[in-house]
Amino acid sequence: MVLDVDGVLTDGRLYFAEAGEIMKAFHVHDGTAIKNWQRRGRKIAFLSGRSSPIVAARARDLGVEDVVQGREDKLEPFLELVRAWALTPEQVCYVGDDTADLPPMRASGFAVAVANAASDVKAIANHVTQARGGAGAVREIVDYLLNHSETK
Known about the structure:
alpha/beta, Rossmann fold, two-stranded antiparallel ribbon
């Protein structure tokens, strides 16, 4: 699973002070779901168009080793992650919320849009969460995927 950060793991709001970006909020339920995904032996990555030490810190906190930041064109880094995992794009879920997420969503096997995603993102998604980004959407999709895979 590859997750966009701003708007998926966060509510999409960016907080700035004179010294620059100072705060992002992450939902604890999403963190629990990420740990549960990892405990099941599943790969996960964060892929963000922006660069932030806050994202790196959250990834470390959750044990997420694959973090790509500062890449506005997300398709190539998505494909690089997939290759590094020895998977095909069709075997990977991508979760996004905005137009920069469209190329990797189209390439992925299961594209997910959060509830408050842009309409063009929702239009191509295989699944749209009920929860908004930053409000448990990642928990919702992890639970959905784990429950779906266990029934197969």
